[in-house]
């Protein structure tokens, strides 16, 4: 089942960045090594989701389309989800063809102020968090505009 998801790539160890992603390592949902969030640099769109989250399902097509553009790196975090097998099914069915991590213990909750999914984090080239969008993305235009405005990339 996990073979259907994009495997997580190995990431080079980097120093944590001020105002960057938390220094937390999460296991890969689709196979591959654990990923230390503080190692990541942008332009990156990181989406926190869960298969039981209706708004996450609503915004999934916009994230899938952005991923297909190849203009920014994409990473998903399956958050507080007791059914990883359903999460894999959701991500593959929705065409979320990028790596996904799992955070069963809500280890990113405090650092990213996660009230619940969905939440989308825009990470700049230097690794700093450029913007955090709480709640559902309501259109492709909204997501593309945030990528342009916050990361300087035109999808």
UniProtKB/TrEMBL annotation:
Keywords linked to the UniProt accession: Cytochrome c-type biogenesis, Disulfide bond, Isomerase, Redox-active center, Signal-anchor, Transmembrane
Transmembrane segments: none
Source domain of life: Bacteria
Thioredoxin domain segment(s): 15-152
GO molecular function: isomerase activity
Keyword hit for Disulfide bond: yes
Name of the protein in question: Thiol-disulfide isomerase/thioredoxin
The species this protein was found in: Kribbella aluminosa
């Amino acid at each position: 089942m996990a073979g259907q998801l994009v495997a997580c790539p190995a990431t080079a160890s980097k120093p944590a960045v001020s105002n960057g992603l938390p220094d937390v390592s999460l296991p890969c949902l689709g196979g591959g090594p654990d990923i230390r969030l503080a190692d990541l640099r942008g332009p990156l769109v990181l989406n926190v989701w869960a298969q039981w989250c209706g708004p996450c399902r609503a915004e999934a097509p916009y994230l899938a389309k952005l991923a297909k553009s190849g203009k920014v790196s994409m990473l998903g975090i399956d958050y507080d989800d007791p059914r990883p097998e359903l999460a894999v099914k959701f991500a593959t069915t929705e065409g979320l063809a990028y790596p996904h991590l799992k955070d069963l213990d809500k280890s990113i909750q405090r650092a990213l102020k996660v009230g619940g999914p969905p939440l989308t984090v825009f990470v700049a080239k230097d690794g700093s968090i450029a913007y955090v969008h709480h709640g559902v993305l309501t259109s492709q235009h909204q997501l593309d505009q945030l990528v342009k405005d916050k990361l300087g990339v035109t999808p």
